[in-house]
Amino acid sequence: MARRGVSELHGFPLKQMQASGNRTRRRLFRLFWIAVVVSLFFEQSLMADSFHNGGVGACDGCHSMHGYEDGVPLPGAGLSAALLRAADASSICLNCHAGMGATTGPNILSPDGSAMTPGGDFYWLNKTFTWVGGSVPGYRHGHNVNAQSYGLGPDVLNAVSPMGTYDATRLGCTSCHDPHGSGTGQTGSVVSGSGSYGDVPVAGTQLGTYRLLGGAGYDADGSGGGFTFNQGTPVARQSAVSRYGESNTSHVDYGSSMSEWCGNCHDQALFNDHNNGSGFEHPSGNNEGLDDTVDTYNQYVRTGDLSGVQATAYLALVPFERGVTDSSLLDPASTTGPDQNSNIMCLTCHRAHASAFLYAGRWDFEAETIATSHPALGDVGVAGSDIFYAWYARDMVAEFGIGQRSLCEKCHTVPRDGYPPGW
Question: Is the pLDDT of residue 281 over 90?
């Protein structure tokens, strides 16, 4: 039997084996780094989710006992008895909740508008849009939270909350969200899970409130400022699968009491009076059912198209409350439209944080058609993917047509007293 050459081993060419080994090592190297990136992604998400765990987080995540870390003074630490690890409470929150798009984590402040959370993106507070005949400064895009470390400051127009008395200079994340889980009706029992995703509490415990919102008795100033909530927390449920985004099939399903809760700062009585002379002309709340607009909502597909059916009528850009007080009855994947139990609420038309539109609107209230809304291409101030993110990654013209009118039409398609034609 002839001896094999040194270039062969057990019938396989040596060079081929070497090349194959190099390819295998390269594949393994790539797989290793892919695994590292994926693990870091999930670790970041899990850390953000588990930090609060439905209630209070680890104390040293926000506070420093002595105001120092590794011998270096922390920003803001020592400026108050709170010993915060940042200049203010909102900056503490944004240390974990600022970053790229909503799909990568619970981010509410992005560098480009990509944090398309149900509540909106504080990015828009720094965006002023100007066009021929109009302009909307950034501070009119939503709630102006004080977060010094992130360049966000108080409202320059309103000294107090519109239709209320809350001091605008004190407004921050903890004005609405309770970082400690106290004053929300949750005291006296251990909180073992989030109230946002339909978790099941451990026996003998209870769930936290939706989004850690402060309830009746909550000190909204967070430091003894004297502003106390008198309304309880709303009932709502976010998809546990897609926790940070919003679409027609994965969204927050709202149950009840959102407008009442907003009324803690914005005077709840005004939401239930259509003609009180205050200039606030749209009723909302648990006692404001969609009534005769239910059929319109369910039939409405787009301007001129009323061929819709209730089973697929839900539009994430125009949500509503189901009129239930038990969050287990809510379905964040539901595409079903409203029924006679459903209510209009503040968040039917507005976002809780900020949006690309005036008054934190879900759409441009002052435009006759979607195509003529602002911000628009050519507006001074528009950059990058602003238009794309303004509409939550929806191509509105492709989806609804060039003639699509204001989304007020989802409920109002015939002339009514007090509404212009088409609303």
Answer: no
Window from 150-159, 265-274, 302-311 with minimum mean pLDDT: 265-274
Angle formed by the axes of helices 89-97 and 14-52, to 10°? 150
Measured distance CA(16)–CA(390) in Å, rounded: 54
CA separation for the pair 356, 130 (Å, rounded): 13
Residue 380 DSSP symbol: B
φ and ψ at residue 398, rounded to 5 degrees: -65, -35
Interatomic CA distance for residues 396 and 404, integer angstroms: 8
The residue whose two tokens read 């519109």 is 162
Confidence of residue 241 (pLDDT cuts 50, 70, 90): confident
Start-to-end Cα distance in the chain = 94
Residues 6+ apart with CB under 8 A from 120: 108, 142, 351, 352, 353, 354, 355, 360
Distance of CA 198 to the CA centre of its chain: 18
Q: Which residues pair with 289 in a beta bridge?
A: 343
**CA-closest candidate to residue 264, choices 161, 118, 169:** 161
pLDDT surpassing 60 at residue 13: no
pLDDT above 60 (res 264): yes
Least confident of 173-187, 209-223, 252-266, 332-346: 173-187
Distance CA 12, CA 14 (A): 6
Q: Average of pLDDT values for 400-423?
A: 75
Q: Rounded to the nearest 10 degrees, how much is the dihedral formed by the CA atoms of 77, 78, 82, 83?
A: 40
Q: Please name the amino acid found at residue 218.
A: Y
Phi, psi angles (nearest 5°) of residue 350: -120, 160
